[in-house]
Amino acid sequence: MSEIASISVNGKSHELPVITGTENEQAIDISKLRDISSIITIDPGFKNTGATKSAITFLDGEQGILRYRGYPIEQLAEHSTFLEVTYLLIYGELPTADTLQDFRNKISRHTLIHEDMKKFFDGFPSKSHPMGQLSCLVGALSAFYPESLNPNPSEEEENLSIIKLLAKMPTIVSWIYKKSLGHPVIYPKNNLNYVHNFLNMTFGQITEDITVDKAVVDAMHTLLILHADHEQNCSTSTVRIVGSSNANLYASVSAGISALWGPLHGGANQAVIEMLENIKNDGGGSAKWLAKAKDKNDSFRLMGFGHRVYKNFDPRAKIIKKACDDVLERLGINDPVLDIAKELEEAALKDQYFVDRKLYPNVDFYSGIIYRALGFPTDMFTVLFALGRLPGWIAQWREMRANKEPIGRPRQVYMGHTTRDYVTLNQR
Ligand code: CMC
Question: What's the whole-number average pLDDT of the chain?
């Protein structure tokens, strides 16, 4: 029997259905509340509001659990490849070896970007932030592939846009990097797999015989997999809401990239390294910085700490911390900011302020140290997050369309002036 919730407002009781998910999470369905009572609910920041029913990612913030399509993140991060996880997220099942090969072949046919798009790269000032460029370039794909504009594409057309975006994103990301150095771009090599191809376009010198260090390749797969989806976060909700107006895939993902850029979301990975560098230049030590983070009159926050949904360890942070130790050891790098990060983490985890608020290190706390060890400059970190998050955005956009979800349009409680008469300045 389905369960019912009662809400009593101004002495009148209203009954609402309760939805139970496959992991027994419960939600009160308030979608008809206004029809039966003229009342809406309000929840700034959607702290307690489910926007959709989704079958893609399960996250339990209290227990620190993250699964893609039912598969634990720990298993995928250790054994799987980024392309396999991409297929899993978008199409719902792990691919067979043949399906994966077919998927890889399809992607490899679309890795080039239109030569005219290179003019965009030349037009950006050399110091412009890579995230601004990425959002612009992904949005611009809709201009080069106008068939993506069809608001009601066939399954085949929709899939083609998906494949093109997956194929072109690594090329765009690497070219942003190469242009920032003033180097010539490296064209895709379609005999290389997805991650190798990306690394080759970024750092060069990779052939079929693979000269790149295995530590680098492993770390890249792990990082991309850990970022691949995270249910209804700020950027993913943006992709879904933009797509709900029937905007095309490229426009929707471009909006998601902009949402990711902020330092409270994906931009935190850049902010963490900048913070650790500041601490290092200031002479190290954690006490001063924890005090600043706790001071309500100081805007400083401990970047890479805290999460809207995790009130326990972020499972991704646990994996990344270990990967960080491994990759630095395998590459023989001694990065002093790693020691600062560890000292800060240890001190924060013992500090009552952080304990009371259940603030733990999140995915961004250690990821930047790995990206840096792999050779990426700090302002590329959030772009790499976007490269990893792409399959999640696509899967969520596709699910939103398949569910035929209505256009996203929240309501508000108006708190402004009541009606008043206009007094003319007679300026016409
Ligand atoms: N440093 C110091 N205090 C913090 C921090 C922090 N990093 N994070 C939260 N708090 C405090 C906050 O001041 C508040 O205290 P009080 O209850 O006394 O007012 C309490 O903890 C709850 O914080 P909130 O801002 O209400 O929580 P939220 O769910 O709205 O924000 C967050 C979540 C991630 C934006 C926030 O924890 C934060 O700003 N963290 C730093 C930025 C960061 O690392 N972002 C990356 C998130 S993970 C990557 C991703 O997927 O986006």
Answer: 94
Contact partners, residue 189, CB within 8 Å, separation at least 6: 197, 200, 206
pTM of the model: 0.95
Whether 266 is in the pocket of ligand 1, judged by its Cβ within 6 Å, is yes
Please work out whether the CB of residue 242 comes within 6 Å of at least one atom of ligand 1: no
Q: How far is CA 214 from CA 56, 81, 266, 345, 386, in A?
A: 30, 13, 26, 29, 23
Q: How far is it, in rounded angstroms, from Cα 377 to Cα 183?
A: 15
- Give the nearest ligand 1 atom to 296 CA: 13
Question: How far does the centroid of ligand 1 lie from the alpha carbon of residue 301, in Å?
Answer: 8
User: Which residues form the catalytic set?
Assistant: 307, 364
DSSP secondary structure, 195-233, as one string: HHHHHHHHH----TT--S-HHHHHHHHHHHHHHS--SS-
59 lines ligand 1 (CB under 6 A): no
Q: Which domains does the chain carry?
A: 4-50 (2.20.28), 56-405 (1.10.580.10)
Q: Residue 314: name the closest of 359, 252, 381 by CA.
A: 359
Distance of CA 202 to the CA centre of its chain: 21
Strand pairing partners for 158?
none
Total Cβ atoms within 10 A of residue 363 = 26
pLDDT tens per residue, range 75-124: 999 999 999 999 999 999 999 999 999 999 999 999 999 999 989 988 99
Which positions ≥6 away from 175 have C-beta within 8 Å?
113, 118, 121, 185, 201
DSSP character string of 246-263: T--HHHHHHHHHHHHHST
* Closest CA to ligand 1's atom 32: 307
DSSP 95: P
Strands 4-9 and 12-20: antiparallel
Compute the distance between CA of residue 246 and CA of residue 260 in angstroms, rounded to an integer: 21
Q: Which atom of ligand 1 is nearest to the CA of 265?
A: 52
